[in-house]
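Reply to dn_fold:

You asked what the input looked like. This is it:
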Amino acid sequence: MENIALIESFSEFKDDKFIDRVTLMAILEDVFRNALKKKFGSDENFDIIINPDKGDLEIWRNRIVVEDGEVEEPNEEIELSEARKIEPDFEVGEDVSEEVKLVDLGRRAILALRQNLISKIHEHDNTTIYKQFKDLEGEIYTAEVHHIRHKAIILLDDEGNEIIMPKEKQISSDFFRKGDNVRGIIEGVELKGNKPLIIMSRTSPVFLEQLFFQEIPEVFDGLITIKKAVRIPGEKAKVAVDSYDDRIDPVGACVGMKGSRIHGIVRELGNENIDVINWTNNPQLMVTRALSPARVSSVKLNDENMTA
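and this is what came back:
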């Protein structure tokens, strides 16, 4: 292959962790076929042979031999005299396959090929990352502090993916230095200009719920259900729990002896005061429990607005 830079681009991406061999070959063929269409008007009579192991490829142009002076479609037909320069025993009506060298496409086309290849593969990578983190929404994730800005912390995971944790998604007592490992939930993912924007949160009630799943075996196993979790991040939280097994005390199982089970969650959330309460389908009793330890003399329910 004449163009070393293009081969290097091919080799650079053949070990890409986000792209499999079949997809890489499809992207390469698509890029080259677009270049052939621009150069010759059509790519229908071209064969592209890709060798992903060596990181190179071959392009072959297929034409039919016609008598000299009778060529009507230059991209599909070749004069007999020209065909015999390739192979001296060609005859009229036979098929000729001629290798197209990259240099024949022109320097500008080669540069455009390389840029298009890089762009297509980056686009594929970004789509893969987007799908990967979309599946992780609502899950706890750990990443390392890479850069601290006034309005956000920039994190990098082990794969080098950038994750943003805005100031409002941080607990007020959070204090991180570059290199610190941070846990939070993947709150949202969106594509901005073909690049995935991944948002982490430590203030979401979902983060609190997921910590219960990680730290309390009975919650993880489904023996205890978290019915509702609300919080003022870094200050206080209420978690309503229930169990379908009468032998299990859901509050006691979550809190543990002298708070042993919930202590790790409290510490992770900057000493947030977490009250675990028993869930009930009785709205008035549920409100009373949620307001504990405050004494409630009466509860008035507004069913229309779902308030009390």
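Confidence is low (pLDDT under 50) at residues 1-5.
Hope that clears it up.
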